[in-house]
Write a structure and sequence with these properties.
By secondary structure, the protein is an alpha+beta fold. It is 40% helix and 19% strand. The strands form five sheets. The protein has a five-stranded mixed beta sheet, sandwiched between helices. Strands 13, 14, 15, 17 and 18 form a five-stranded antiparallel beta sheet that branches. Strand 3 and strand 4 (53-62) form a beta hairpin. Helix 3 (100-117) crosses helix 6.
Length: 519
């Protein structure tokens, strides 16, 4: 989901720069801290101690004139250059307040962005492009009646609560959609203002089309409940800011305005909450789940801006193909498991060793130039080999990011997955634990309350009901009692997006057979 507030704020940022009142440092001049580095006339200077004095020392390394993020931006843009819109399976619906010429331009953007993403992934459904002007709620209500009930609520909530913006995704009924709320009060005869307006909305379209493909390949619900916000929104930001405009000049201008606005928002937040340090950044990253304060509640949309930096580093470290592969596999397992499978390193280890140091460096020095060797290494690593990922045969949505099993308290037993996907306990508990009790563990995101029922496999009698339990964090561990020795049970797990069993419910019936310990 893209907030237009960010887009509008961009126009307030001047593209001019203010010259520094301080002279550039040079080799042999005084410095203040050993190990500190700076750039002067394209040479990397390092603060060293010579005798009792601290002086700038010029290294042998020559720097280029490019940053890591510029390489990623330019490469992604080159994949679009010369691309002709070939995906015309876009159905356009306009409210009365939207000029037809604006609708046609937005449809072209949708066709171009769909064609762009089809270089990486397959889109096998029609796209419904819905464009509404403010104060036309009745038209919106009539237009979304054909959508599933929960989608209708999403559209209407978005329309009535925001001054403008966009949202995109898929439905289980074989439809992809992008919804735009656009203030169309502009003079279309003024080519300059029209071009600036359309440049911004082209970036928005690429952002939302990224969500369409994310949702299609992972499952709409999995994308929203199983994915950390910094990845979903951050990836869409990286991709859209590489396409902010119709040519390289406008892309660069829009990208820089967006980027520096975002960096300032993150800095301002950190300055109010512990300062700019690695731990503060790690906490923000670890907690930027869907719907939490970092993703949805702050006006600055911190996970968008922070996520853009982290996704840049993912592409730099592992290449564009791996970044796309992660998107296509989100719905197949828990987020942490998929991250490890795709990149060969856990999310926590990668963030500690590479992700957060990069974010820290960019926040402190957003214009650090790379060495020629560094730049060439990044250029080589991000090349895309043209592999296209098909959508999964079946979207499993929410349940794919959950794992559940049962074991005696403090038991060292391992839980195995049998060929049919059941979860079983395969050995007895030799630790003296009561054989009539166990534990069910559920892992996932977006869960605020849960209810677990356990039934006998043979009689279907209810043996355990946890009732509604409000929970936070993950994993969620629930003690289970009233179990009988040597009996096999089935579970029904219901999780809810809000406390007290409210909000959206996801039921996992008979997720696995649970066998109690032999007595």
């Amino acid at each position: 989901m893209k907030r237009l507030a960010l887009l509008l704020a961009i126009a307030l940022i001047s593209s001019s720069s203010t010259p520094s009142s301080f002279a550039a440092p040079k080799a042999g001049a005084k410095c203040t801290k050993v190990g500190k580095t700076t750039i002067s006339k394209n040479i990397l200077l390092t603060c060293v101690k010579k005798g009792k004095r601290l002086l700038w020392s010029a290294g042998k390394t020559k720097l280029g004139t490019v940053t890591a993020d510029e390489i990623v931006r330019d490469y992604l843009f080159t994949l679009r250059e010369g691309l002709k819109p070939t995906n015309t399976n876009v159905n356009l619906s306009l409210s009365d307040g939207i000029p037809l010429e604006l609708g046609k331009d937005l449809k072209k953007f949708a066709e171009l962005s769909a064609t762009y993403f089809q270089q990486f992934m397959i889109l096998d459904r029609r796209i419904e492009l819905i464009v509404a002007a403010p104060d036309e709620e009745s038209w919106v209500r009539d237009r979304v009646k054909s959508l599933p009930k929960e989608k209708q609520e999403n559209f209407l909530d978005f329309y009535t609560s925001r001054i403008g913006g966009a949202m995109g995704g898929v439905t289980n009924q074989g439809l992809a959609y992008i919804f735009l709320k656009v203030n169309a009060n502009l003079n279309y005869k003024n080519l300059e203002t029209r071009a600036e307006f359309l440049d911004g909305w082209q970036g928005v379209m690429f952002h939302e089309m990224a969500h369409v493909f994310q949702s299609l390949h992972s499952g709409e619900t999995s994308m929203k409940t199983c994915t950390v916000c910094w990845y979903g929104e951050g990836q869409a930001e990286v991709l859209s800011h590489s396409h902010y405009g119709s040519n390289k000049r406008t892309v660069t201008k829009g990208y820089e305005s967006n980027r520096y606005f975002g960096l300032e928002e993150v800095r301002n937040y950190l300055s109010r909450n512990g300062g700019l340090n690695t731990r503060s950044i790690e906490e923000m990253v670890d907690n930027s789940l869907r719907r939490d304060e970092y993703c949805a509640k702050h006006a600055a949309a911190l996970a968008y801006n922070l996520g853009r930096l982290i996704n840049e580093k993912l592409i730099i470290d592992f290449g564009l193909r791996k970044s796309i592969e992660l998107m296509t596999r989100i719905g197949s397992n828990s987020w942490e498991s998929v991250f490890l499978e795709v990149f060969g390193v856990s999310q926590s280890d990668w963030l500690m060793e590479s992700g957060t140091p990069y974010v820290t460096k960019v926040l402190m020095d957003p214009i650090r130039f790379l060495t020629i060797a560094e730049a060439n290494q990044i250029k080589d690593s991000i090349q895309f080999n043209g592999e296209v990922f098909p959508p999964p045969a079946k979207i499993e949505n929410f349940r794919n990011c959950l794992e559940n099993g049962t074991h005696g308290a403090n038991s060292s037993d391992e839980v195995d997955k049998s060929s049919n996907g059941e979860l079983r306990i395969n050995s007895a508990d030799n630790l003296g634990n009561s054989p009539d009790s166990g534990v069910i563990t559920v892992r996932g995101t977006g869960i605020n309350s849960i209810r677990i029922k356990v039934f006998s496999l043979s009689t279907e009698d209810l043996h355990f009901d946890s009732g509604i339990l409000n929970v936070s964090g993950s994993p969620i561990t629930v003690p289970v009692t009233q179990l009988k020795c040597g009996t096999t049970y089935l579970t029904k797990i219901s999780v809810f997006s809000e406390v007290d069993g409210n909000g959206k419910e996801f039921a996992i019936d008979n997720k696995g057979q649970l066998r109690t310990f032999d007595c």
